[in-house]
Automatic annotation (TrEMBL):
Ranges for domain DUF4340: 71-258
The organism's place on the tree of life at top rank: Bacteria
Full protein name: DUF4340 domain-containing protein
Originating organism: Cellulosilyticum lentocellum (strain ATCC 49066 / DSM 5427 / NCIMB 11756 / RHM5)
């Protein structure tokens, strides 16, 4: 009997032990399933108050503080931030939901979360905060890993949500160049590498606004209308791309010695520094903050060369402003006198040494246009100082007297078979097309012969 009882007891002990082993194994398996990945949709931002301070650390730290309805950077108070863009970014963060949760992670670095991670900390009005760290993207590029100090574990969020978190705070900056209205621009300066400056000024010429190139040549020269229109359009279309940073002792963005400085009127200045890819670094006036801009604007502004800008017509003659034009060459003198009738009617005479030729208004306008287009600048002299020293006699002289009795005299000095040297009020800088001048005097001679 005792033997049977012992056997039963032994069986009980064996079965009980087996049961405990089974239970222990099942328990560990259950815990093992709880420690791991879990598909869970959970909002990760639990900060309830209104966000009034943002800290974004990505190498350097960017701080934004809310003042009334404006976001300000206490380190760069001259920056303007797009309130709506920041607001939409914060709303997007509040909506982020996890796709997966990974618990009891011993090494977060395997998910790209370490000291180099992007860290975003939000503060509300009560100074409550929540911090997010953004890790790496999954191999299938569908999810980003991230953590928050208010929850345990690593969370996987949708790719687009991760991209929202990674948004560069510099893109929130509104780069307003505050370019003057085009009609209010009276002066433009283009300083190239601190070597030379193109100074353009809006002047009145017989009641008409005309832009002139000042100081580069010995005299001022009108700028071609289409060139000026293109330049103003380039200035109008300039836009800031993004905020780049601030000038420091280690990084000046090439702005200590800028490639180009664009000045408008008095007090507005934009400096262009070094280029990087399709962007160029710029700064306004002497501010420390630096922006980027598409380098296309720089390329367009630096493409303007003095000789290509100026009008090639030496005599730009408005019909209503002329009193007399006298043209002299070795073969004779041609005198064009304009007489103005009532109500704008014009009676015109060409008085020559041989005969008088009466022209109507249309014929007069056509002749004046021919004279203007015939004295055509073809090239800039390579050594104008040498030509200036040699007092050479002019072969052709053209004197234009305006209604206000202002007089301009140009002289054409033989140079070679293709050019005359142009001398205006004693100054030589350019050569004019000889063939055009020859044809002009042939036209005048032919008119006189026809009259005969």
């Amino acid at each position: 009997m005792k033997k049977k009882m012992g056997i039963v007891l032994l069986l009980g002990i064996i079965l009980g032990g087996a049961g405990m082993i089974y239970y222990s194994t099942q328990s560990k398996m259950t815990m093992g399933q709880a420690i791991g990945k879990e598909e869970v949709a959970q909002k990760l931002c639990t900060l309830e108050g209104n966000v009034v301070r943002i800290e974004i650390k990505r190498g350097e730290t960017t701080i934004l503080e809310k003042e009334h309805q404006n976001w300000e950077n206490p380190e760069h108070m001259d920056l303007t931030y797009d309130w709506q863009a920041v607001h939409e970014w914060l709303v997007a963060i509040r909506k982020i939901e996890s796709k997966e949760a990974i618990y009891k992670v011993e090494d977060e670095a395997q998910y790209g979360i370490d000291d180099k991670s992007l860290i975003i900390t939000l503060y509300d009005e009560m100074n409550h905060s929540q911090t997010f760290k953004v890790g790496k993207i999954t191999e299938d590029k569908q999810l980003f890993y991230m953590t928050t100090d208010r929850m345990e574990g690593v969370y996987a969020v949708a790719y687009n949500d991760g991209q929202q978190l990674l948004r560069n705070p510099n893109t929130f900056v509104v780069g307003n160049l505050k370019i003057p209205e085009l009609e209010n621009i009276e002066q433009i300066k283009l300083t190239h590498n601190e070597e030379y400056t193109l100074s353009l000024k809006k002047l009145q010429d017989l009641g008409v606004d005309k832009w002139s190139l000042m100081d580069y040549y010995k005299g001022s020269h009108f700028i071609q209308t289409e060139v000026m229109e293109q330049l103003l359009e380039t200035i109008k279309e300039m836009k800031i791309d993004s905020f780049a940073g601030a000038i420091t002792e280690k990084e000046d963005y090439g702005l200590t010695k800028p490639q180009l400085i664009l000045g408008l009127n008095q007090g507005w200045e934009l400096s262009f520094g070094k280029t990087e890819g399709d962007l160029v670094y710029v700064r306004m006036n002497d501010q420390s903050v630096v922006y980027t801009m598409k380098k296309e604007a720089l390329e367009q502004l630096t493409s303007y060369k003095p000789f290509d800008m100026i009008s090639r017509e030496v005599l730009e003659l408005p019909l209503s402003g002329i009193k007399q034009i006298v043209l002299e060459n070795p073969q004779g003198t041609y005198n064009l006198t304009l007489e103005y009738g009532e109500a704008g009617q014009v009676a015109t005479e060409i008085v020559s040494q041989l005969d008088e030729i009466a022209l109507n208004k249309e014929q007069t306008a056509e002749l004046i246009s021919t004279i203007s287009s015939s004295i055509w600048i073809e090239a800039a002299l390579q050594n104008p100082e040498i030509e200036q020293k040699e007092e050479r006699k002019a072969e052709i002289t053209i004197t234009c007297t305006l209604q206000n009795n202002q007089e301009e005299t140009i002289e054409l000095i033989p140079y070679d078979i293709n050019y005359y040297i142009l001398r205006v009020d004693g100054v030589t800088e350019f050569a004019v097309n000889k063939d055009k001048v020859t044809k002009l005097f042939s036209t005048l001679s032919h008119m006189k012969k026809e009259k005969k």
